[in-house]
């Protein structure tokens, strides 16, 4: 005498299972469609550009290739997209100047260079260091006891790798150059430890 109730319950349960299964299938289909649309329309990294903004003005001291100071210039900061910097720079120079990488000690082309001349930014050609202030620090990186003009570099607090250091960037284009430490020779007592890949050397004539 309980068969009709059992049959009804079984029928209701089957109907409920079908309805739930249909809902889950529909939800999964919709989610898959949304993900497919997003995947097709999201920007590719190579297509991403630097955010559009008005470059700020900077003041730098200009020098001739012979190292003579030629005057002070006010100009817009150089701002480029990732792809534009990649086209301009070698892979190593790009990683160091645009992503704060560091070349291996004793591997750069300028660490043991003793010629007289001027070291310019590899990204924007701003004068940065003079060979007159270069010294052998024994570290395997080009080292200077001062920049050619303090206006041409920017010093930034760096807390990466669990340390507190002072990073050095090019004032005009924000290229990462290296770090400055308080263990250099007189007269400044500073050591600007700079990546060769961030520099372009111009020999005095």
Characterize the structure shown.
The protein has three helices and eleven strands. It is of the alpha+beta class and 205 residues long. It has two domains: 3-42; 57-203, Peptide methionine sulfoxide reductase (Metal Binding Protein, Guanine Nucleotide Exchange Factor, Chain A, Beta Complex). The strands form three sheets. It has a six-stranded antiparallel beta sheet with strand order 5-6-10-9-8-7. A three-stranded antiparallel beta sheet has the order 4-3-11, with no helix packed on it. A hairpin with a 5-residue loop joins β1 and β2 (69-76). The model is unreliable at 1-18 and 31-52 (pLDDT under 50).
Question: In brief, what are we looking at here?
Answer:
With 205 residues, this protein is an alpha+beta fold. It contains three helices and eleven strands.
